[in-house]
Amino acid sequence: MEMSIEVKMSMLLMIFQSIILAGQLWLAYYVYKSNKSEAKGYFMPLNDNLGIPQELKKIASYRYDLTKAIMFQNRGNDMLILLNNVIMVNNRIVESGTMPLNTLFTNDDSIFSRYGIVIPISHKDLESNKIDVKLEIKMKNSKNYIYKQIFYIEFSKLKDNDGQWEISKCNIEFKK
């Protein structure tokens, strides 16, 4: 039994439409995946925790008292939810997952965009001239994309100011 030309053309048209539909589905999935990871919140350290007057901030930026909380602010283009944190001081894990987890941080300039961390530093470490801190923060954005932000911070003790430290090196890395 031979098929008519109309049936053959209809089958060919259906196959062609199926190929186009599969391509559209793949493209929609690709756009969804790229949009999901595009909007990210990320933390940046605030200039100091010493209460330095505004007119001196340019001279004395990134100076800290390491016995007090260091504030970080969400500067990204999306809110973020904190899932886990790990703090290492001089290659020793000193704290892991103790922050209130699943905390939402907005990306506006308000108190809801700030994350304060007290780094548990020993007296022995405070007597040295340099302290290396690694802060690993696992978070997710509003579209449930999970990623990590890792800070590698080197604090150097200021010679003229007792108890004050400044950031001498700071590298930030993002991982999926």
UniProtKB/TrEMBL annotation:
Keywords of the record: Membrane, Transmembrane, Transmembrane helix
Residues passing through the membrane, by range: 12-32
Protein name: Uncharacterized protein
Organism from which the protein derives: Enterocloster clostridioformis
Organism lineage string: Bacteria, Bacillati, Bacillota, Clostridia, Lachnospirales
